[in-house]
Amino acid sequence: MGEMEELRKEADNLKDQITEARKVVQDTTLQEAVAGTTLVGRVQLKTRKTLRGHLAKIYAMHWGTDTNCSKLCVSASQDGKLIVWDTLTTNKVNAIPLKSSWVMTCAYAPSGNMVACGGLDNMCSIYNLKGKDGNVKVMRELAAHTGYLSCCRFLNDSEIITSSGDCTCILWDIETGTEKTIFAGHLGDCMSLAVSPDFKMFISGACDFTAKLWDIREATCRQTFSGHESDINAIGFFPNGNAVITGSDDATCKLYDLRADQELITYQDSGIMCGVTSLAASLSGRLLLAGYDDFNVNIWDMLKAERVGVLAGHDNRVSCIGVSSDGMACCTGSWDSFLKIWN
Amino acid sequence: MFTFPLATMYFYSLTDNAGVINMDELTDVDKAKMERDQKKIEVKLERWMTSKCCTEFMEAVQAGVEEDTLVKGIAEDKNPFKELKGGCVVC
């Protein structure tokens, strides 16, 4: 037997063992477990603010988390700008012109001191919002990926994690502008990443239809979750960090529990046939808000896996969604160039 | 054939500017080795019973739901995102 065949056979054998081990612990399904709970009441959110200012498709948005910026958010548009918004007043706090307009992601540092973005330039650019002279300037350009930057998330002011179309994720040292760790293993473009609430792990979703859980300091992949039938575009942690939520081109979202190492439930409806572009969980995790290619956001009861609301207000694809860190509002960004704040 | 027994370590943990992994440069055999080695790690995981996970999941959700604005709603006068009223019109 050739080396390839042997390796494949070994891997398949191990995969079968993993499937078996997952079955062994499956003594109930989430559907059975929640049979006695009541569906959450119909959720009707209203648009409270519309953030106008971008001149082209919005590709990403991210809320600030620090108490001084919990009502601030940053958005990235292919008009070549990053805008930091005060969502209470709809004022633009910063409008940052980018070198490359082909931006696909943006992030707000937990401290509120920096924002980052990247895209088809294959780089992650870090901007210092608190420069001495008040001007926002590029602080670092992190270059090493050989594919587009699909997502980036700060761990702190000196470290950021990026995911790329080159199938890898990288942990960077912002001060030196160099790679600390390269996380390889996905066999398709990495589309999205999310950091665990305790900042020890991160998850990535990719075009190989899997999601991977990585230990940041050990630099290892701990677990791989399959089941989706197409690219995973969006990924997030359940608020307590014990489960992962994914959204895919296969029109479904899935909930995977980290301790059981398997899917607990799928959020799907025969009437939904278009891909999921973005997702966010409400503060308690009771609601899953997911943006789809059909211009809507569907709101799911995460326990009962039924739709309990729709956010209809954009005139084009909803590309990004986020719930503020205090859970008071959700923000949607769209290819129609607007961001909306709902609660 | 010359094989690199440390090659698999290289792929999982690179530090100190060791260089970039270009997935395009990895051979099919390299990728198959990575997969096989990854599954060797994953097969050893200790897994919880799903009943325990479901119970904890439900409890976590119920614990926070009362404070969850998007679920419970918010009174107009307490909503920080309400319409900003007041001020005056200058003609």
TrEMBL record, chain A:
Q: Does the keyword Coiled coil apply?
A: yes
Pfam families hit by this protein: WD40_Gbeta (PF25391)
Mention one GO biological process in which this protein takes part, according to its record. signal transduction
What keyword terms does UniProt attach to this protein? Coiled coil, Repeat, Transducer, WD repeat
The coiled-coil regions, if any, are 4-31
Q: Where are the WD repeats?
A: 51-95, 142-182, 183-224, 225-266, 276-310, 311-343
**Repeat as UniProt keyword:** yes
Species the sequence originates in: Oncorhynchus tshawytscha (Chinook salmon)
Q: From which domain of life does this come?
A: Eukaryota
Q: What is this protein called?
A: Guanine nucleotide-binding protein G(I)/G(S)/G(T) subunit beta-3-like
**Which protein family is it in?**
Belongs to the WD repeat G protein beta family.
UniProtKB/TrEMBL annotation, chain B:
Q: How does it sit in the membrane?
A: Lipid-anchor
* MF annotations from Gene Ontology: G-protein beta-subunit binding
Please give the InterPro entries that the UniProt record associates with this protein: G-protein_gamma, G-protein_gamma-like_dom, GGL_sf
* Subcellular location field: Cell membrane
Xref: SUPFAM superfamilies: Transducin (heterotrimeric G protein), gamma chain (SSF48670)
Query: Which GO terms fall under biological process for this protein?
Result: G protein-coupled receptor signaling pathway
- Which Pfam family is an annotated match for this chain, by its short name? G-gamma
Q: Which domain of life is it from?
A: Eukaryota
Is Repressor one of the keywords UniProt gives this record? no
The record's keywords, sorted A to Z, are:
Cell membrane, Lipoprotein, Membrane, Transducer
Please give the GO cellular component terms listed in this UniProt entry.
heterotrimeric G-protein complex
* The G protein gamma domain, residue ranges: 22-91
Q: Which family does it belong to?
A: Belongs to the G protein gamma family.
Name the PANTHER family for this protein.
GUANINE NUCLEOTIDE-BINDING PROTEIN GAMMA SUBUNIT
Please describe the quaternary structure of this protein: G proteins are composed of 3 units; alpha, beta and gamma.
Q: What does this protein do?
A: Guanine nucleotide-binding proteins (G proteins) are involved as a modulator or transducer in various transmembrane signaling systems. The beta and gamma chains are required for the GTPase activity, for replacement of GDP by GTP, and for G protein-effector interaction.
Q: What name has this protein been given in UniProt?
A: Guanine nucleotide-binding protein subunit gamma
Query: Which species does this protein come from?
Result: Oncorhynchus tshawytscha (Chinook salmon)
